[in-house]
Amino acid sequence: MTENESPALKVALAYHRAWTTHNFEAAMTYIAEDIVCQAPAGRLDGAEAFRGFMGPFVEIITHSKLIAAFGDRTTAVLMYDTDTIPVKDAPGAECITVEDGKITHMRIIFDRLPFDAARRAAPGG
Amino acid sequence: MTENESPALKVALAYHRAWTTHNFEAAMTYIAEDIVCQAPAGRLDGAEAFRGFMGPFVEIITHSKLIAAFGDRTTAVLMYDTDTIPVKDAPGAECITVEDGKITHMRIIFDRLPFDAARRAAPGG
How far is B70 from A77, CA to CA, in rounded Å? Predict the structure, then answer.
Protein backbone atom coordinates (compact mmCIF):
# COMPACT_ATOMS: atom_id res chain seq x y z
CA MET A 1 0.00 0.00 0.00
CA THR A 2 1.13 3.54 -0.60
CA GLU A 3 1.02 6.23 2.03
CA ASN A 4 -2.40 7.34 0.79
CA GLU A 5 -3.77 3.83 1.12
CA SER A 6 -2.22 2.94 4.48
CA PRO A 7 -3.26 5.09 7.45
CA ALA A 8 -0.55 3.42 9.56
CA LEU A 9 2.18 4.23 7.02
CA LYS A 10 0.97 7.83 6.81
CA VAL A 11 1.39 8.24 10.58
CA ALA A 12 4.70 6.36 10.59
CA LEU A 13 6.13 8.63 7.90
CA ALA A 14 4.85 11.81 9.53
CA TYR A 15 6.47 10.73 12.79
CA HIS A 16 9.66 9.79 10.95
CA ARG A 17 9.88 13.08 9.04
CA ALA A 18 9.43 15.01 12.27
CA TRP A 19 12.16 13.36 14.31
CA THR A 20 14.65 13.11 11.44
CA THR A 21 14.33 16.88 10.96
CA HIS A 22 14.86 17.47 14.69
CA ASN A 23 11.23 18.41 15.30
CA PHE A 24 11.00 16.04 18.22
CA GLU A 25 8.00 17.70 19.86
CA ALA A 26 6.11 17.38 16.58
CA ALA A 27 7.15 13.72 16.45
CA MET A 28 5.83 13.18 19.97
CA THR A 29 2.34 14.29 18.89
CA TYR A 30 2.08 10.95 17.03
CA ILE A 31 2.99 8.93 20.14
CA ALA A 32 0.12 7.53 22.21
CA GLU A 33 0.25 8.24 25.95
CA ASP A 34 0.18 4.51 26.62
CA ILE A 35 2.67 3.48 23.94
CA VAL A 36 4.55 0.24 24.49
CA CYS A 37 7.98 0.32 22.86
CA GLN A 38 10.11 -2.79 22.62
CA ALA A 39 13.63 -1.40 22.27
CA PRO A 40 16.98 -3.23 22.26
CA ALA A 41 17.53 -2.45 25.95
CA GLY A 42 14.05 -3.59 26.96
CA ARG A 43 10.43 -2.55 27.18
CA LEU A 44 9.41 1.06 27.62
CA ASP A 45 5.92 1.85 28.90
CA GLY A 46 4.29 5.18 28.17
CA ALA A 47 5.10 8.37 26.30
CA GLU A 48 7.44 9.78 28.96
CA ALA A 49 9.61 6.67 28.98
CA PHE A 50 9.62 6.77 25.18
CA ARG A 51 10.62 10.45 25.26
CA GLY A 52 13.55 9.62 27.50
CA PHE A 53 14.72 6.97 25.05
CA MET A 54 14.17 8.72 21.73
CA GLY A 55 14.82 12.36 22.66
CA PRO A 56 18.56 12.01 23.31
CA PHE A 57 18.97 10.00 20.10
CA VAL A 58 17.32 12.71 18.00
CA GLU A 59 19.78 15.25 19.38
CA ILE A 60 22.82 13.38 18.02
CA ILE A 61 21.51 12.77 14.47
CA THR A 62 23.47 14.49 11.73
CA HIS A 63 21.92 12.80 8.66
CA SER A 64 19.13 10.35 7.86
CA LYS A 65 17.84 8.48 4.85
CA LEU A 66 14.75 6.33 4.49
CA ILE A 67 15.60 2.88 3.08
CA ALA A 68 12.13 1.30 2.92
CA ALA A 69 8.59 2.01 4.11
CA PHE A 70 5.56 -0.26 3.88
CA GLY A 71 2.25 -0.47 5.66
CA ASP A 72 -1.31 -1.64 5.80
CA ARG A 73 -4.32 -0.42 7.75
CA THR A 74 -2.85 -0.78 11.26
CA THR A 75 0.83 -1.67 10.84
CA ALA A 76 3.82 -0.02 9.20
CA VAL A 77 7.47 -0.96 8.87
CA LEU A 78 10.23 1.56 8.26
CA MET A 79 13.91 0.95 7.69
CA TYR A 80 16.30 3.89 7.64
CA ASP A 81 19.90 4.83 7.93
CA THR A 82 21.17 7.54 10.22
CA ASP A 83 24.50 9.15 10.86
CA THR A 84 25.00 10.30 14.41
CA ILE A 85 27.72 12.26 16.17
CA PRO A 86 29.28 9.21 17.85
CA VAL A 87 28.43 6.59 15.17
CA LYS A 88 28.22 6.91 11.39
CA ASP A 89 25.98 4.53 9.44
CA ALA A 90 23.66 3.53 12.28
CA PRO A 91 20.62 1.97 10.60
CA GLY A 92 17.36 1.21 12.35
CA ALA A 93 14.08 -0.56 11.71
CA GLU A 94 10.70 0.00 13.28
CA CYS A 95 7.46 -1.94 13.20
CA ILE A 96 4.69 0.27 14.49
CA THR A 97 1.03 -0.21 15.30
CA VAL A 98 -1.30 2.76 14.82
CA GLU A 99 -4.66 3.24 16.50
CA ASP A 100 -6.77 6.38 16.06
CA GLY A 101 -3.86 8.20 14.43
CA LYS A 102 -1.39 7.51 17.26
CA ILE A 103 1.48 5.05 17.57
CA THR A 104 0.48 2.62 20.31
CA HIS A 105 3.22 0.04 19.81
CA MET A 106 6.72 0.18 18.40
CA ARG A 107 9.28 -2.53 17.95
CA ILE A 108 12.60 -0.86 17.17
CA ILE A 109 15.78 -2.63 16.17
CA PHE A 110 19.27 -1.17 15.92
CA ASP A 111 22.78 -2.24 16.73
CA ARG A 112 23.85 -0.95 20.14
CA LEU A 113 27.40 -2.28 19.80
CA PRO A 114 28.99 0.72 18.01
CA PHE A 115 27.28 3.14 20.41
CA ASP A 116 28.62 1.12 23.33
CA ALA A 117 32.11 1.15 21.79
CA ALA A 118 31.94 4.92 21.21
CA ARG A 119 30.89 5.47 24.82
CA ARG A 120 33.75 3.33 26.11
CA ALA A 121 36.22 5.24 23.91
CA ALA A 122 34.99 8.66 25.02
CA PRO A 123 36.84 10.58 27.74
CA GLY A 124 35.38 9.39 31.04
CA GLY A 125 33.38 6.75 29.16
CA MET B 1 0.90 -6.19 -1.40
CA THR B 2 0.36 -9.75 -0.31
CA GLU B 3 2.78 -12.57 -1.04
CA ASN B 4 0.88 -13.43 -4.22
CA GLU B 5 1.10 -9.87 -5.49
CA SER B 6 4.74 -9.20 -4.56
CA PRO B 7 7.37 -11.40 -6.22
CA ALA B 8 10.02 -9.97 -3.88
CA LEU B 9 8.00 -10.81 -0.78
CA LYS B 10 7.40 -14.32 -2.07
CA VAL B 11 11.14 -14.92 -2.38
CA ALA B 12 11.86 -13.21 0.96
CA LEU B 13 9.36 -15.43 2.77
CA ALA B 14 10.57 -18.61 1.06
CA TYR B 15 14.13 -17.74 2.09
CA HIS B 16 12.96 -16.88 5.60
CA ARG B 17 10.95 -20.10 6.05
CA ALA B 18 13.94 -22.14 4.90
CA TRP B 19 16.52 -20.72 7.28
CA THR B 20 14.18 -20.48 10.26
CA THR B 21 13.45 -24.20 9.87
CA HIS B 22 17.17 -24.97 9.69
CA ASN B 23 17.06 -25.75 5.96
CA PHE B 24 20.01 -23.50 5.31
CA GLU B 25 20.99 -25.06 1.99
CA ALA B 26 17.43 -24.52 0.74
CA ALA B 27 17.68 -20.91 1.95
CA MET B 28 20.93 -20.45 0.02
CA THR B 29 19.16 -21.34 -3.25
CA TYR B 30 17.47 -17.92 -3.02
CA ILE B 31 20.78 -16.07 -2.61
CA ALA B 32 22.36 -14.61 -5.76
CA GLU B 33 26.02 -15.48 -6.35
CA ASP B 34 26.84 -11.78 -6.38
CA ILE B 35 24.73 -10.77 -3.39
CA VAL B 36 25.79 -7.66 -1.52
CA CYS B 37 24.82 -7.85 2.14
CA GLN B 38 25.12 -4.84 4.42
CA ALA B 39 25.35 -6.39 7.87
CA PRO B 40 26.05 -4.73 11.23
CA ALA B 41 29.74 -5.68 11.07
CA GLY B 42 30.15 -4.41 7.49
CA ARG B 43 29.65 -5.27 3.87
CA LEU B 44 29.71 -8.86 2.63
CA ASP B 45 30.29 -9.51 -1.07
CA GLY B 46 29.10 -12.72 -2.67
CA ALA B 47 27.26 -15.87 -1.67
CA GLU B 48 30.22 -17.52 0.08
CA ALA B 49 30.79 -14.51 2.34
CA PHE B 50 27.06 -14.46 3.03
CA ARG B 51 27.13 -18.18 3.85
CA GLY B 52 29.94 -17.60 6.35
CA PHE B 53 27.87 -14.92 8.08
CA MET B 54 24.41 -16.49 8.07
CA GLY B 55 25.28 -20.20 8.36
CA PRO B 56 26.61 -20.06 11.93
CA PHE B 57 23.64 -17.95 13.02
CA VAL B 58 21.14 -20.47 11.67
CA GLU B 59 22.81 -23.21 13.72
CA ILE B 60 22.13 -21.44 17.04
CA ILE B 61 18.45 -20.61 16.45
CA THR B 62 16.01 -22.30 18.80
CA HIS B 63 12.82 -20.42 17.91
CA SER B 64 11.65 -17.80 15.45
CA LYS B 65 8.53 -15.74 14.82
CA LEU B 66 7.73 -13.42 11.95
CA ILE B 67 6.66 -9.97 13.20
CA ALA B 68 5.96 -8.21 9.88
CA ALA B 69 6.43 -8.79 6.16
CA PHE B 70 5.77 -6.36 3.33
CA GLY B 71 6.92 -6.07 -0.24
CA ASP B 72 6.44 -4.71 -3.72
CA ARG B 73 7.75 -5.88 -7.08
CA THR B 74 11.48 -5.73 -6.29
CA THR B 75 11.79 -5.00 -2.55
CA ALA B 76 10.65 -6.73 0.61
CA VAL B 77 11.06 -5.97 4.29
CA LEU B 78 10.83 -8.59 7.01
CA MET B 79 10.98 -8.15 10.75
CA TYR B 80 11.22 -11.20 12.97
CA ASP B 81 12.12 -12.34 16.42
CA THR B 82 14.47 -15.20 17.12
CA ASP B 83 15.63 -17.00 20.21
CA THR B 84 19.15 -18.33 19.98
CA ILE B 85 21.27 -20.49 22.25
CA PRO B 86 23.37 -17.59 23.61
CA VAL B 87 20.71 -14.82 23.38
CA LYS B 88 16.94 -14.99 23.87
CA ASP B 89 14.74 -12.41 22.12
CA ALA B 90 17.16 -11.41 19.35
CA PRO B 91 15.02 -9.63 16.75
CA GLY B 92 16.19 -8.78 13.26
CA ALA B 93 15.03 -6.81 10.24
CA GLU B 94 15.92 -7.28 6.60
CA CYS B 95 15.33 -5.16 3.53
CA ILE B 96 15.99 -7.29 0.46
CA THR B 97 16.12 -6.66 -3.26
CA VAL B 98 15.08 -9.49 -5.57
CA GLU B 99 16.10 -9.86 -9.21
CA ASP B 100 15.13 -12.88 -11.32
CA GLY B 101 13.97 -14.77 -8.24
CA LYS B 102 17.21 -14.32 -6.30
CA ILE B 103 18.18 -12.03 -3.46
CA THR B 104 20.81 -9.66 -4.84
CA HIS B 105 20.96 -7.20 -1.95
CA MET B 106 20.20 -7.46 1.74
CA ARG B 107 20.39 -4.87 4.44
CA ILE B 108 20.14 -6.67 7.78
CA ILE B 109 19.83 -5.02 11.18
CA PHE B 110 20.14 -6.65 14.57
CA ASP B 111 21.64 -5.78 17.92
CA ARG B 112 25.11 -7.27 18.28
CA LEU B 113 25.50 -6.11 21.88
CA PRO B 114 23.89 -9.09 23.66
CA PHE B 115 25.82 -11.53 21.41
CA ASP B 116 29.03 -9.70 22.28
CA ALA B 117 28.15 -9.84 26.00
CA ALA B 118 27.38 -13.58 25.77
CA ARG B 119 30.70 -14.20 24.05
CA ARG B 120 32.59 -12.27 26.72
CA ALA B 121 30.79 -14.19 29.47
CA ALA B 122 31.48 -17.61 27.92
CA PRO B 123 34.39 -19.74 29.14
CA GLY B 124 37.40 -18.64 27.13
CA GLY B 125 35.33 -15.78 25.64
Answer: 8
